[in-house]
Amino acid sequence: MDQQNCARSLARGNGKEGINSCHPRSQEALADFVDSAALGLHWVAPDGTILWANKSDYEPLGYTAEEYIGHNIAEFHTDGETIADILQRLTRGEKLVEYSARLRCKDGSVREVSITSSVRFDETGKFLHTRCFTRDVTEHLRVARALRESEERFRMLLAGVKDFAIFMLDAGGRVETWNLGAERLYGHSAEEIVGQHVSELYTEESRREGCVEEDLSTASLHGRHESECERVRKDGSRYWAHVITTALRDSDGRLRGFAKVTRDVTDKRRAEEERERLLQELKEAVAVRDEFLSIASHELKTPLTSVKLNLHALEHRTEVAAGKTEGEGSRKLMRIHGQIDRLAKLVNSLLDVSRITANRLDFHLEEVDLGEVLQDVLGQYKEELDRAGCSLHLRTDTGVIGRWDRLRVDQVVSNLLSNAIKYGPGRPVEVDLQRLGRSARLVVRDHGIGISAQDQERIFQRFERAVSIQHYGGFGLGLWISRQIVDNLGGSIAVHSETGLGSTFVVELPLSGPSRG
Ligand code: ADP
Q1: H or E element, residue 158
Q2: pTM to 2 decimals?
Q3: Are the C-beta atoms of 247 and 256 separated by less than 8 Å?
Q4: How many angstroms separate the CA atoms of 229 and 199, rounded?
Q5: What is the structure's pLDDT at 13?
Q6: N or C: fewer beta carbons within 10 Å in the chain?
């Protein structure tokens, strides 16, 4: 009779039979109850024969009642000594509680069990049978063993880490665990430091400044706190530590303590300090150089201007005195003029460098006819073109007028043209000026030595050159200054070139001038 029927028959109150058939005293109900017990139950005779057992005792092992009951209990134990010991102790009248044993299943596998057992003796003291309660603890033991192993592995991992100090603090900041890395880093052994307050590891100053409390309270507030600071070793020496402090909370959110992972970053820190020092030195050296450039170019310019003026005066007087404008003296004077102009250009470039570096490149914006500027420059370079054997092919649009700085634009055109002559002697030079919508486009093309692809961006940098000083003189400043000028006017400068075939420089300038100006 199942539970529902039993309950119904009780509810109907239909007599004794209903009550008796549900009552534990009913044989059937009792047998059912015993068979379904969560424990294995059996009786064993003094010689070990299994006299009786419930289903929960043999079925989980894979046996039928026939294969189990009537057999000797020793057949089912993997360890003969264990069952012998059990029987001996029971015979002596001992009660066994949670006695560990291993039983063999029908399929050969083994189950771990915990046995609680005693003997039922009759009034004469005769061993009637055992009363064994067997609990299968295989799964329980497996989980406990796995947990122990995992804890052990974790403990070994922490203990074995040598490059990091890994340790735990209780909620009050006292050291609870200490790994090998911590011992190596701080010099304290676990025995010495466990139980001490973490402030032992801080410097005197940081303790005074309240860093200990601050570190822990920040970690507690945000869950984690990361810092780089000095720490003290057992011998009093200091090192730079990178420390991560993590607050440890239980499932109810209660603060249980802190985990600290510390790494020695002294070397990294020293390298950073050294880098910082070198950078500072470099900045100072650059500043000294720039200042020198600025002073030197100013100082050079003054006597140069005076030499030029005196030369003019001398030239005039010589010519007047000689009554002629031609002759050897005059040619020599012309050459001196040329050299002085060259010197003046170099000095001006140096002056520009210091102005650009100091952000003092001034622009005087006005309406400028780029065609006119181009003609002026070509006029200045006519002799040089002739001397170099470069034929000039010019194509210009008229009325390419924009808001620019005349002298600066002149400087860019001069620079491109002088480079075309310098790096492409004996070859034609083509100059093309066009108005393209709201921009002016100036193209200077030569058929000279060209520039390799990897050098094409570099040559616009300060002091960068793609040729050797033995073959071609120069400072490597012209293109850098040109780019600064063009940039300041809101335009662009680019080069297209192939080694040995020549170079084409393209400058584009918006007619409206720089947007901010
Ligand atoms: P510099 O000519 O005084 O060296 P620039 O700044 O004018 O300085 O030019 C930088 C470098 O770019 C030159 O040293 C040269 O290697 C390269 N370069 C410039 N213009 C040309 C050109 N037209 N053809 C070939 N190389 C050039």
Answers
A1: helix 138-160
A2: 0.55
A3: no
A4: 13
A5: 40
A6: C
| Two tokens, residue 114 | 């915990």
pLDDT at 345: 85
* Burial 165-181, CB ≥16 within 10 A → b, else e: bbbbbbeebbbebbbbb
Instruction: Say how far apart CA 297 and CA 321 lie, in whole Å.
Output: 36
Matching residue, tokens 């001490």: 196
Cα–Cα separations (whole angstroms), residue 197 to 11, 168, 175, 259? 70, 11, 6, 14
Most informative mutation of 479, 480, 498 for ligand 1 (most atoms within 8 A of CB): 479
Neighbouring CB atoms inside 10 A of 55's CB total 18
Count H helices and E strands in the chain, helices first.
Answer: 17, 17
Of 454, 434, 419, 446, nearest to 501 by C-alpha is 446
pLDDT bracket for residue 312 (50, 70, 90): confident
**Residue found under tokens 């880490």:** 161
Helix (H) / strand (E) element for 96: namely strand 96-104
- Distance of alpha carbon 7 from alpha carbon 15, whole angstroms: 13
Q: Which residues line ligand 1 (CB under 6 A)?
A: 415, 419-420, 423, 446, 448-451, 459, 465-467, 474-480, 503
| Closest residue CA from atom 7 of ligand 1 | 478
What is the C-alpha separation between 180 and 199, in angstroms, rounded?
19
CB 436 within 8 A of CB 397: no
Whether residue 4 has pLDDT greater than 70: no
User: How far is Cα 501 from Cα 447, in angstroms, rounded to an integer?
Assistant: 6
Give the CA distances from residue 259 to residues 47, 175, 266, 487, in Å, rounded to whole numbers and listed in that order.
Answer: 59, 10, 22, 56
Mutate which of 412, 429, 467, 482 for ligand 1? The one with the most ligand atoms within 8 Å of its CB, which is 467
Q: What is the dihedral of CA 249, 255, 259, 265, to 10 degrees?
A: 120
509 vs 438: CA distance, rounded Å: 9
Confidence class for position 14, pLDDT limits 50, 70, 90: very low
